[in-house]
Amino acid sequence: MTAIRYRTVDVDGHLVFYREAGDPSRPTLLLLHGFPSSSHMFRDLIPLLADRFHLVAPDLPGFGQTEIKPRNSFRYGFDALARVIGRFTEVIGLDRYALYIFDYGAPVGLRLAMAHPERITAIVSQNGNAYEEGLSTGWNPIQRYWRDPSTENREALRELLTPASIRWQYEHGVPDTGLLSPDGSALDAWYIGGDEVDEIQLDLFGDYASNVALYPAFQAYFRKHQPPLLAVWGKNDPFFLPAGAEAYRRDLPNAAIRFLDTGHFALETHADAIAQEIRAFLQD
User: Fold this and answer.
1) Phi/psi of residue 99, each to 5°?
2) What pLDDT is attached to residue 178?
3) Are 240 and 264 in contact (CB under 8 A)?
4) Closest CA to 280 of 225, 242, 230
5) Which of 15, 111, 165, 224 could form a disulfide with 82 if both were Cys (CB 3.0 to 4.6 A apart)?
6) What residues does each domain of the chain span?
7) Which helix (H) or strand (E) element contains residue 111?
8) Active site includes 264?
9) Inter-CA distances, 148 with 13, 136, 144, Å
10) If the chain, 284 residues long, is cut into consecutive pieces of 10 residues, what is the mean pLDDT of each piece?
11) In what order do the strands lie in the sheet with 28-32?
12) Residue 259 is inside which H or E element, if any?
């Protein structure tokens, strides 16, 4: 049995929850989750890699078990999320690590990489987008809010926070939904139902425009530093298209691209396959 530790650390006054497994003397893999999930999404992957790697999976601010600070004392935007997670890595003593970036974890992790490229040994992008061609029409309502941040457009996005919508995100594009545990989506919906969390999530929808604005900077980072990159992608993702994975090769010609016949939450059905890809990619 893999020993997974569940810890909370004070990061400049922000209590950050994280999961940790494996020998700290081994190469570290920092696992960054996305919307509307938490580090719980890595529950199946961590035991599959803990014999080879030191694994650290924090809950981002506004998600999971990490402290939910009031919106009037903490501005929930992606720069702020990256600032907290960047300091988190320093507080727990991570000075070199590979990144596993998924969904919201991609713009958070890539901000860390741009700030400290010397710390990044490699990147695993699982449906973690950095190119405009990777954005599907599923982003249309959110993009409408970017263009016109009216109350009407903000309220229209609440539908994305319902338990039914969260479950749909798990099921869409999965050939056999009988393979999907109900636990992940149910836990996500429970967390999203916390005090003020709905407003935090709407704030983050609005601020996602800052990530798209940074795509050229992310791509410049790739071209300059050429980090080894594996894009392992649920090809039926309703939000991030396969073109987003293929686009990495424009700036990283040696990027490894793998497509899986599943949806956005690829770990729910393909944890074994993704673990095998990571083990082959991150050779000692």
Assistant:
1) -105, 135
2) 96
3) yes
4) 230
5) 111
6) 4-281
7) helix 105-115
8) yes
9) 34, 19, 6
10) 92 98 97 98 98 98 98 97 98 98 98 98 98 97 97 97 98 97 97 96 98 98 98 98 98 98 98 98 82
11) 4-11, 14-21, 54-58, 28-32, 97-101, 120-125, 229-234, 256-260
12) strand 256-260
Name the packing angle between helices 78-91 and 197-225 (round to 10°).
70
pLDDT at 283: 83
User: Of 55, 37, 2, whose CA–CA distance to 183 is shortest?
Assistant: 37
Q: Are 22 and 35 in contact (CB under 8 A)?
A: no
Choosing from 33, 172, 264, 270, the catalytic residue is: 264
Which structure tokens are listed for 245? Answer: 């994975």
Residues whose CB falls within 8 Å of the CB of residue 177, separated by 6 or more in sequence, listed in order? 171
pLDDT digits 0-9 by tens, 22-42: 999 999 999 999 999 999 999
Question: For residue range 48-82, what is the model confidence (pLDDT) as tens digits?
Answer: 999 999 999 999 999 999 999 999 999 999 999 99
Q: Which residues pair with 193 in a beta bridge?
A: none
| Sequence-ordered strand ranges (E) for 12-155 | 14-21, 28-32, 54-58, 97-101, 120-125
Does the domain at 4-281 match CATH 3.40.50.1820? Answer given as yes
What pLDDT is stored for residue 1 in this prediction?
65
DSSP reduced 3-state for 48: helix
Q: What is the DSSP letter of 9?
A: E
**Residue listed under structure tokens 């800052």:** 210
Coil, strand or helix: which one is 16? strand
Which residues fall within 8 angstroms of residue 229, CB to CB, at 6 or more apart? Answer: 122, 123, 124, 125, 222, 248, 252, 255, 256
* pLDDT, averaged across the chain: 97
Residue 158 is which amino acid?
Answer: R
